[in-house]
Each structure stands twice: as C-alpha cells, then as structure tokens.
Amino acid sequence: MSQIVSAGRKHSPNRPGVRTAALVVAAGQGLRAGQPMPKQFVNWRGKPVVRHSVEALLAAGCAPVLVMIPQNAEAVVRAALSGLTDVDFAIGGATRQESVRLGLEAIAREKPDRVLIHDAARPLLPAEVVERLQTALDTHTAAIPVLPVSDSLTHAAGDMMGAPARREELRRVQTPQAFHFSDILAAHRAWDDAPTAGDDAQVAQAWGMEVALVEGDEILHKLTYASDFAPTRAAVRVGNGYDVHRLEEGEELWLCGVRVEHTHGLAGHSDADVAIHALVDALLGAIGAGDIGQHFPPSDEQWKGAASDRFLAHAAELVAEAGYALGNADVTIICEAPKIGPHREAMRARLAQILGVDASAISVKATTTEKLGFTGRREGIAAQAVVSLALL
Ligand SMILES: Nc1ccn([C@@H]2O[C@H](COP(=O)(O)OP(=O)(O)OP(=O)(O)O)[C@@H](O)[C@H]2O)c(=O)n1
Ligand SMILES: C[C@](O)(CO)[C@H](O)COP(=O)(O)O
C-alpha cells in the first residue's frame, strides 16, 4: 500500500468516538464504458471520476480513504488524487469482491469502527446519503442506500418475456454500503464461494448480518456505459446580434418584417431589415452557426432584394435542427426616426409568426442616441438582438 501524500491527520472522527474508514473500489477495467482508460480515471465534470467521491468521503470525515486500483495504475491514481491527504491506494483483485476483501485486510491494521465501501464509478455522493448510512449504523451492523423501482419488471426467457417480477418487493441498490468494520471483514473472510457477489451487502447477508435499507439518491448513478460519458449539452444557450444599414431616400423601410412608411428607407443587398438581420445573427450565434453573411452572402445575386423573413425562417430551422427551441428574443432598434412605438405590436406579431412562437416570447424595443453618432445624424439605423434557446 503506498500513501499518495503523507497524511495530515491519520483519523478524523466523523462521529464522536466513532472512526469510519472508507474503501473506494476503483480496480475495474471499465470495459462497458468504452473509454480510453478505465472509466474511474477519466476526467468527468472537471476532475477524474474517482476524485469526486474520494473528496466527498474525506469531507464526510472518513479517514483513511483507501482506493483499490488496477495493476500498473499507480501513476494515474497519484495524478488523479494529488493534493489529498488521508488517502492511500492498494492493488485490487480480479473481481469487485476480491478488491473489497484486499482493501478490508489492508485497512484492518487501522482498526476503524466502521467502513463505507463505495464504487468509484459513482462519482456524485451526497453528504445526506452518508449521514443516513451513519445514522443507520447506530442501530444496525449494515446499511445500504436503495431506490424504488419505477418501471415494471420482468424475467427474460431469451428475447421473450418470462414471469413478471413484483417491483414492490424490489429495490435498486447503490453504494456506499456501510458496515461495522469487524463484521464485514469477518463476512468476507467467511465467504467460501467464488468471489463474484454483486455487492458487499450480499456478502454480509450470507454471513448472517441483517442489512438495513436507507434512502439512496438518483445522483448516485453508476457510470457504466459510453452514454454515461456523452457530453451533456447546455440546457440553455444565448446569442446576440448587431446590424447597421444606411438610410437613403427612395428605399423602402422594413423593420422586424413590417413595412414602415418613412421619408427614407434602408439600403442593402436584401430588403435591409436591420432588426431581422440582428435577430438572425443572435440565433446563429446561440447555436455557434456563424453569421448571416456566411449563410446569405451579399455577393450572391439570389438574395438581391430578398425579404429578410426568409433569413429568419432559415435560422429558426437551424436552431430546431440543433435540438433547441426559442426561449425568448429581445430586439432593440436604434434610430432617431421613425417612431417605432406605433408599430411595436405588429412587429412582435410578425417576428412571432416567422419564428413559430407566441408573441409573448418576442420583445421589440427602440431607443434614440440623443442625436449622437450616425444614428443621431439619421444616417442609418442600428439594431441589437439577444435570444435564449432551451434544449429540447
Ligand atoms: N475487479 C474489480 C472490478 C470492479 N471494481 C470496481 O467496482 C465498481 C463497480 O464495478 P463496475 O461498474 O462493473 O466497474 P467495472 O468492472 O470496471 O466495469 P465493466 O464491468 O464495464 O468492466 C467500479 O468502481 C470498479 O472500478 C473493482 O474495484 N475491482
Ligand atoms: C455494487 C453495485 O454498485 C451495487 O449496485 C453493483 O452491484 C455493481 O455492479 P457491477 O456490475 O460491478 O457494476
């Protein structure tokens, strides 16, 4: 057994007079996860999988924490757990049960009162679950976290349904599994069958221990398959857009898909609807799909004089293809004239119609620049847009 860092404190009682060790089993190959290395050492949500629960167990007052690792993984585990004290590691066995047995024998010299045995593959360990287990050990010799079964269950006869199973009688078993140390060590030592028990509660029960059930937590999910490592997509994405067009006599003025009567209109390759252009850029930005010029190049004759609602409809399609829906859009038109207020509701309705959303999701505002700058000199109109997208 090699200590990663000299322990700052050998034992930290997490209950007055009670010393609890932790055994983190991380000696598997993680074959089902299909990762470039055993899954427990893969970087996950900012740190190696194994580090998450080791830190949680240390924070819960467990000491020492012994991590069982595969052969030839010393360098990887040192890196994964660098900087932590009260953490040791040892080489595990060919099965999970063997890894636990080896770990318990290694911890035995510390003579802890209790031990929490935890899968490194369950990185997120709520302190509340540890507390429930510790409380259960005040009146029982063993306790495990469980969850109810929400699906109906069946036995399988090959690819065909077998006898239905009564889910009311079943629970989903998680870890950490908590024991009075001497009892679980004796139970492992007394096991006289192939070391293939699914968990330590089964070993304890085979030795005659009664195992209490405490409420588990879905967040204790065991990382098992490649899908568990698929990058999670942001639930919300935001984007912003900005555009400017020059005011010129003889041009039409289109804003938010609405024709506005005015002395001047906006010049541009398309209908120069500066507000829609800003909104298109906001949508494209939110999904990382470039900008309006990339999708509708001003050099492309097919877009000459084109109505900008086509650009907005296309951006909306790309957002949907990316798996998002519009949360809300907020457009600000920046000009000295014309007054936007009288057209606001028509603009909101038109944008909502193009985007296929309720008008309540669309905001259209306007402001002057107090006669400052190019907008103040009525040389042009600018527009800004901000959007939020929700993952479908
Ligand atoms: N010989 C073994 C096998 C498993 N484990 C640990 O037991 C936990 C639960 O096992 P599992 O999720 O099945 O991990 P693997 O056996 O690595 O996965 P696979 O079956 O996909 O190879 C994991 O933290 C794993 O590292 C262990 O310490 N020693
Ligand atoms: C110990 C365990 O996590 C309890 O649910 C489970 O039995 C481990 O099973 P695995 O096949 O070793 O992942």
Automatic annotation (TrEMBL):
Q: Which Pfam families match?
A: NTP_transf_3, YgbB
EC number(s) in its UniProt entry?
2.7.7.60, 4.6.1.12
> What are its cofactors?
a divalent metal cation
**Residues the UniProt record annotates as site (Positions MEP for the nucleophilic attack):** R167, K222
InterPro entries in the cross-refs: IspD, IspD/F, IspD/TarI, ISPD_synthase_CS, MECDP_synthase, MECDP_synthase_CS, MECDP_synthase_sf, MobA-like_NTP_Trfase
Q: Binding of a divalent metal cation: at which residues?
A: D243, H245, H277
Could you tell me which residues belong to the region 2-C-methyl-D-erythritol 2,4-cyclodiphosphate synthase? 237-392
Q: Where does 4-CDP-2-C-methyl-D-erythritol 2-phosphate bind?
A: D243, V244, H245, H269, S270, D291, I292, G293, T367, T368, T369, E370, F374, R377
This chain belongs to the protein called Bifunctional enzyme IspD/IspF
User: Any idea what job this protein has?
Assistant: Bifunctional enzyme that catalyzes the formation of 4-diphosphocytidyl-2-C-methyl-D-erythritol from CTP and 2-C-methyl-D-erythritol 4-phosphate (MEP) (IspD), and catalyzes the conversion of 4-diphosphocytidyl-2-C-methyl-D-erythritol 2-phosphate (CDP-ME2P) to 2-C-methyl-D-erythritol 2,4-cyclodiphosphate (ME-CPP) with a corresponding release of cytidine 5-monophosphate (CMP) (IspF).
Question: Transmembrane segments in this chain: where?
Answer: none
**Which gene is the coding source of this polypeptide chain?**
ispDF
Superkingdom in the source lineage = Bacteria
The protein's annotated catalytic reaction(s) are: 4-CDP-2-C-methyl-D-erythritol 2-phosphate = 2-C-methyl-D-erythritol 2,4-cyclic diphosphate + CMP; 2-C-methyl-D-erythritol 4-phosphate + CTP + H(+) = 4-CDP-2-C-methyl-D-erythritol + diphosphate
Family (UniProt) = Belongs to the IspD/TarI cytidylyltransferase family. IspD subfamily. In the C-terminal section; belongs to the IspF family.
* Start and end residues of each stretch annotated as 2-C-methyl-D-erythritol 4-phosphate cytidylyltransferase: 1-236
Q: Where is this site: Transition state stabilizer?
A: R32, K39, H269, T368
Q: What is the lineage of its organism?
A: Bacteria, Pseudomonadati, Pseudomonadota, Alphaproteobacteria, Sphingomonadales
Q: Which pathway does the database say it acts in?
A: Isoprenoid biosynthesis; isopentenyl diphosphate biosynthesis via DXP pathway; isopentenyl diphosphate from 1-deoxy-D-xylulose 5-phosphate: step 2/6; Isoprenoid biosynthesis; isopentenyl diphosphate biosynthesis via DXP pathway; isopentenyl diphosphate from 1-deoxy-D-xylulose 5-phosphate: step 4/6
Question: Keyword Transferase: yes or no?
Answer: yes
Q: Which HAMAP family match?
A: IspDF (MF_01520), IspF (MF_00107)
Alphabetized NCBIfam families for the sequence? ispD (TIGR00453), ispF (TIGR00151), PRK09382.1 (NF006899)
Q: Which UniProt keywords apply?
A: Isoprene biosynthesis, Lyase, Magnesium, Metal-binding, Multifunctional enzyme, Nucleotidyltransferase, Transferase
Q: Does the keyword Mitochondrion apply?
A: no
Domain MobA-like NTP transferase: from-to ranges: 22-173
Instruction: Say which species the protein is native to.
Output: Novosphingobium panipatense
Locate the 2-C-methyl-D-erythritol 2,4-cyclodiphosphate synthase domain: which residues? Answer: 236-389
